[in-house]
């Protein structure tokens, strides 16, 4: 991996200027087989309080509710189906927040519980309401403690893991950096538990160009995510200009050392070409309702020339979606081209696919839009 010479300077500059920080901690660091580790909770509160006293605004994204509930209920009751895990989360979440409240009270810090589902951020109105609430809490010097609302989230509306949630929250509040505390020292070029020759990777400058699957075999046991989920979340954050530091949460005073500019963990740099907050929302908060297949000429026009998608370039339509729905755009070979908001219903597109604009009016009558998907409402796969 070829590295530029100034990435450490970039990292130092970003950390020195950072004002709003997402700190994510996973179950592998936060819990033991006996449940929540109070020593970890207390050490984390001590470090976050110290950063807060420096003037940093901190949002803590925490796992641990299911693990805490499992300890109380017994492993047999909290294992298996989703309903059992949701019930365990309901029991564990109150204990998790109580532990944080007690720990932060020693430093006279006020915390707030924020439970989110993907559906909360998929609705633009609810997204903005959540943003306003979070920003007001930060203005009031409160430390929001965020977790997924496992108790009510159905599988289709789950973030998947709190790594993904941390990148969504970074976009929600306009964070400057994400610190992802994990059980590993950082990223390696192979799984160090299986390959003793695996090499530590201090910097990832172009994460969109990497094959993340090949780097990330295996996962830790306590939570739902492994290194792959952390890197996928870091890639999402990088597209909106937010860097991520993946670092061991088991090191002493790790947060203080990071902001004292000690060279720890793996730094994932932001991409040079960034998505707007709106396009990030399109790409990651909405679920596609169908698929539009485009021919080779249209695929080249979209990816190489930044054009909008016209009906003439459509080769097929899959699904039954309405106007304004998010759709996948794929090539003839099924390869991803991007996603976007369609100006036509699926039933209309099947009538006009492959046709020019004058021909479309003969079939549908006057249309307010010539483009099927306007480039301003489209996110290309190469940008993700």
Explain what you see.
A hairpin with a 2-residue loop joins strand 2 and strand 3. The protein is an alpha/beta fold. Strands 5-6-4-1-7-11-12-10 form an eight-stranded mixed beta sheet, sandwiched between helices. Strands 14-13-15-16-17 form a five-stranded mixed beta sheet, sandwiched between helices. A two-stranded antiparallel ribbon has the order 2-3. 41% of the residues lie in helices and 19% in strands. The protein has two domains: 7-280, Acetylglutamate kinase-like (Carbamate kinase, 3-Layer(aba) Sandwich), CATH 3.40.1160.10; 288-383, PUA domain (Archaeosine Trna-guanine Transglycosylase, Chain: A, domain 4). The two termini are 20 Å apart. It is built from 16 helices and 17 strands. It is an enzyme of class 2 (transferase).
SSE blueprint and pairings:
Layout: H1 7-17, E1 20-25, H2 27-30, E2 31-32, E3 35-36, H3 38-53, E4 57-62, H4 65-73, H5 75-78, H6 82-105, E5 111-116, H7 118-122, H8 124-139, E6 143-148, H9 162-173, E7 177-182, E8 187-188, E9 200-201, E10 203-204, H10 212-215, H11 227-238, E11 244-248, H12 254-259, E12 266-268, H13 277-284, E13 290-294, H14 296-305, E14 314-318, E15 326-330, E16 336-341, H15 346-352, H16 357-364, E17 378-380
Parallel strand pairs: 1-4, 1-7, 4-6, 5-6, 7-11, 10-12, 13-15
Antiparallel strand pairs: 2-3, 8-9, 11-12, 13-14, 15-16, 16-17
Helix pairs in contact: 3-6, 4-6, 9-11
């Amino acid at each position: 991996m070829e590295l530029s010479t100034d990435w450490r300077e970039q990292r130092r500059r970003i950390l020195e200027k950072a004002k709003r920080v997402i700190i994510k901690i996973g179950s592998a660091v936060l819990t033991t087989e006996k449940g929540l580790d109070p020593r970890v909770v207390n050490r984390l509160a001590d470090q976050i309080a110290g950063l807060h006293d420096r003037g940093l605004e901190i949002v803590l994204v925490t796992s641990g509710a299911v693990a805490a509930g499992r300890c109380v209920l017994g492993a047999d009751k909290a294992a298996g189906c989703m309903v059992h895990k949701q019930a365990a989360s309901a029991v564990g979440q109150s204990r998790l927040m109580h532990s944080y409240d007690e720990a932060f009270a020693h430093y006279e810090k006020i915390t707030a519980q924020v439970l989110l589902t993907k559906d909360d951020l998929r609705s633009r109105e609810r997204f903005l309401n959540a943003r306003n609430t979070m920003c007001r809490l930060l203005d009031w010097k409160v430390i929001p403690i965020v977790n997924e609302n496992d108790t009510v989230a159905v599988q289709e509306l789950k973030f998947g893991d709190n790594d993904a949630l941390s990148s969504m929250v970074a976009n929600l509040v306009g964070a400057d950096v994400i610190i992802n505390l994990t059980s590993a020292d950082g990223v390696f070029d192979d799984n160090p538990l299986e390959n003793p020759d695996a090499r530590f990777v201090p910097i990832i400058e172009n994460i969109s160009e990497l094959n993340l699957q090949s780097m990330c075999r295996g996962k830790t046991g306590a939570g739902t995510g492994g290194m792959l989920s952390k890197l996928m979340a870091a890639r999402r954050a990088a597209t909106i200009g937010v860097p991520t530091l993946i670092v061991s949460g088991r090191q002493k005073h790790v947060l203080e050392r990071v902001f004292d500019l000690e060279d720890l963990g793996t730094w994932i740099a932001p991409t040079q070409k960034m998505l707007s907050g709106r396009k990030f929302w399109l790409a990651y908060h909405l679920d596609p309702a169908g698929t539009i297949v485009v021919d080779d000429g249209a695929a080249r026009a979209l990816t190489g020339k930044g054009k909008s998608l016209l009906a003439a370039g459509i080769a097929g339509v899959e699904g039954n979606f309405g106007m304004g729905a998010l759709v996948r755009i794929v090539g003839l070979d099924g390869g991803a081209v991007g996603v976007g908001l369609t100006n036509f219903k699926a039933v209309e597109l099947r009538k006009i696919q492959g046709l020019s604009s004058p021909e479309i009016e003969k079939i549908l009558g006057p249309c307010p839009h010539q483009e099927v998907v306007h480039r301003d409402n489209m996110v290309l796969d190469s940008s993700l």
